[in-house]
């Protein structure tokens, strides 16, 4: 036996210290709700969980992008719907101007109405925008073809949904000649000629609306898919990063008992030294 160094006490303390550190870790997990609180807890698990979180956040932003893009397409569609109503009205007026029961004065009044309606159609084209982005023509003061729009819907740079440019104004819909009719220029024959022009204009406008509608459907489908994807990614991250409370509470109780046993072992190791001294010097 040796009195100078209490080996039993050192061993008991070492085991107690290890158990105490594990107990502190368990408390940290229960208080934070996370199984991984630092890289040392699970280096590979942390890397995987962080990648999953980044991917989930990217998908979440893509969903927000898609919702914004849907709002854009809806604004454009409503604007073109009103333009479609205008074309319907103009054709009705041309039919009225074509019949023999309409006088020359009546046709002149109809011409003025038609010009005003086409001007309004152009106003809609110049004013329709989303966050300053012109949707139906190049710009508020530029009636050229609008820019092609690219929506980032996904994690990588290649995950793009595109929307073709349109020119939904009097120039793009071939209504310039009708808009520029001078005083007295609207005759029955002119009205008859432009009725077919209006049909073509409506077909062109409907093709623009169809493109916006198809893009909206594509965006909505992407949102449904990405919402499911985000949920699965969050669940996968949670499995790796979050603590299982039932399991951890059980582990905490086990460590608590081990700590109490360790404290008892230290006390007993010190008691052996005391007993030895008492025996030797009684």
TrEMBL record:
Localization, UniProt: Secreted; Bacterial flagellum
Source domain of life: Bacteria
Any matching Pfam family: Flagellin_N
Transmembrane segments: none
SUPFAM superfamilies xrefs: Phase 1 flagellin (SSF64518)
Function: Flagellin is the subunit protein which polymerizes to form the filaments of bacterial flagella.
Domain Flagellin N-terminal: 4-138
Main location: secreted
Name of the protein in question: Flagellin
Positions of the Flagellin C-terminal domain: 196-280
InterPro entries per the UniProt record, alphabetical: Flagellin, Flagellin_C, Flagellin_N
Keywords associated with the record: Bacterial flagellum, Cell projection, Cilium, Flagellum, Secreted
Native source species: Arcobacter roscoffensis
Family that this chain belongs to: Belongs to the bacterial flagellin family.
């Amino acid at each position: 036996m040796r009195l100078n160094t209490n080996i039993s006490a050192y061993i008991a303390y070492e085991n107690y210290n290890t158990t105490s550190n594990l107990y502190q870790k368990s408390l940290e997990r229960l208080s934070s709700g996370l199984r991984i609180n630092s890289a040392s807890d699970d280096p590979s698990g942390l890397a995987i969980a962080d990648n999953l979180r980044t991917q989930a956040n990217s998908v979440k932003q893509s969903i927000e992008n898609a919702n914004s893009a849907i709002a854009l397409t809806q604004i454009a569609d409503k604007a073109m719907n009103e333009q479609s109503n205008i074309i319907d009205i103009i054709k009705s007026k041309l039919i009225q101007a074509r019949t023999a029961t309409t006088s020359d004065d009546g046709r002149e009044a109809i011409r003025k109405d038609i010009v005003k309606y086409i001007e309004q159609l152009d106003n809609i084209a110049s004013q329709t925008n989303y966050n300053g982005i012109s949707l139906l023509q190049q710009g508020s003061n530029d009636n050229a073809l609008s820019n092609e729009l690219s929506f980032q819907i996904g994690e990588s740079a290649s995950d793009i949904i595109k929307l073709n440019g349109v020119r939904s104004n009097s120039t793009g819909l071939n209504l310039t000649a009708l808009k520029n009719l001078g005083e007295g220029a609207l005759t029955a024959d002119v009205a008859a000629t432009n009725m077919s022009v209006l049909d073509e204009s409506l077909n062109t406008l409907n093709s623009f609306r169809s493109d916006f509608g198809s893009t909206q459907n594509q965006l909505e489908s992407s949102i449904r898919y990405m919402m499911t994807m985000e949920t699965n990614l969050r669940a996968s991250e949670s499995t790796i990063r979050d603590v299982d409370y039932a399991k951890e509470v059980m582990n905490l109780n086990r460590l608590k008992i081990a700590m109490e046993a360790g404290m008892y072992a230290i006390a007993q190791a010190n008691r052996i030294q005391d007993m030895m001294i008492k025996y030797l010097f009684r």
